[in-house]
Amino acid sequence: MTEVPQQKQVTIAINAATVEDLKLALKAGWKDFSAAPQYGIFFGVFFALGGALLVWLAFILDVVWVTYPLTIGFALIGPFIATGLYEVSRRLQSAQPLSWPTVLFVMVDQHRRELGWMAFVTLFVFWVWMYQARTIFVVFFGSKGFATLDGFVAAVFSTETGWWFLLVGHAVGAVISLVLYTLTVISCPLLLDRDVDFVTAMITSVRAVLASPFVMIIWGVFVIVTVLLSMLPAFLGLLFVLPVLGHATWHLYGRVITVQH
Q1: Do the beta carbons of residue 10 and residue 201 sit within 8 Å?
Q2: Neighbouring C-alpha atoms within 13 Å toward the C-beta of 165
Q3: Is 258 left (phi over 0), alpha (psi -120 to 50) or beta?
Q4: Which of these, 186, 198, 203, 257, is most buried using a 10 Å CB contact count?
Q5: How many CA atoms lie within 13 A of 188 on its CB side?
Q6: Euclidean distance between CA atoms 19 and 175, whole angstroms
Q7: pLDDT tens-digit readout, 212-253
C-alpha cells in the first residue's frame, strides 16, 4: 500500500500591513530583479507573449470586443503566473544557489502539489470572468458583435447603451476581481513556501486582506493599473513591470505572514 505523505501542522499568524510595507516590498522587488534580471525578463517575455497571443486570437476570431476584459482578466491571474519569480526571490532571500534547472523544476513540480489546485481555482474564476463579460455584452448589444475595434469603441462611448454596459460590466468585474485577488494574493506564495493545503492557503489569503483591507486593496489596484499601463506599448512594459511586481509580492507575503511549526 502506498502511503500518502501527511502535511505538517503549522501555525500561521497574520501581521497587519502598512503602506510602508508596500514601499519596502517594491524596493526589495526591484533589488531582486536587479540581482537576477535574466529570470525576470524570461518570465516577463512569457507573460507578454501570452497576452499578445490572446489579443491576436481575439482579432482573428472577430471578437474584438473581448480584448478589454481579456486583458484585465489576464492581469488578474498574475499572482499564479508569477510562481517562478517567487522561487527566485525565495532563493535570493535564503542565499540558495540560483540556476535555470532549479527554478524551472519548482514550477513543473507544482502540479503534484497543492498549487496545482490553486491553478484550477484561478482558471475557473478567469472563466467566470470571461463568461460574465460575454453575458453582459449580449444583454446590451445582442449577439451581432462588431467587425472592428473602432466600431465597438464608438458604440460603447457614444451611446447610452454603451455607458450602461460600462457601468454594469465594471461593477460586476470589480466584484470578481476582488474575489480572485483576495483568494490568491497570499495563497500562491504561501503554497510555494510552505506545505499547506490550498484551502488553508486561500483562507489565509482572505484573512490577510481582511486584516489590512485598505492597504491590501491599494496594492491590488496598484498592481492592476501598473500591469495594464505596461501592456499599452505592445505588452513590452511587462518585460520589466511583471518581474518587479512578482518579486515584490513575495516580499509583501513575507511581511504579512509569519509561519510557525
Answers
A1: no
A2: 24
A3: beta
A4: 186
A5: 29
A6: 23
A7: 999 999 999 999 899 889 888 778 898 999 999 999 999 999
